[in-house]
Amino acid sequence: QVEMEGSGGGLVQAGGSLRLSCVASGRIFSSAIVGWFRQAPGAERQFVASIRWDGGRGRYADSVKGRFTISRDEAKNTVYLQMNSLKPEDSAVYYCAAKEALGYQYSVWGQGTQVTVSS
Predict the structure, then answer these.
(1) Residue 13: beta bridge partners?
(2) CA 94-96-97 angle, 5° bins
């Protein structure tokens, strides 16, 4: 049974940076994909970024390209989301999630971590 635990949110001024962490426990297949999503109040949850557990290039939503970087540390079973040049519109609850492979649905979700960017 895989579990995901996200952390690292906080309050930051516009233009600042935060790094979110998602620690995975349990057996994770190399083909698994870990993603970050976010949900602002009154809005639908939206995709932010994803990466294969065995590495490779990350995928990003257009709204965060060039500002956010997803990476993973296999030794620590952790996926990171480095967020730079933050904007007020990046404020949301951020969730990490995992799925078995491309084409599957995200089935394991971590608890959310709040990111608030002040103007």
Answers:
(1) 118
(2) 140
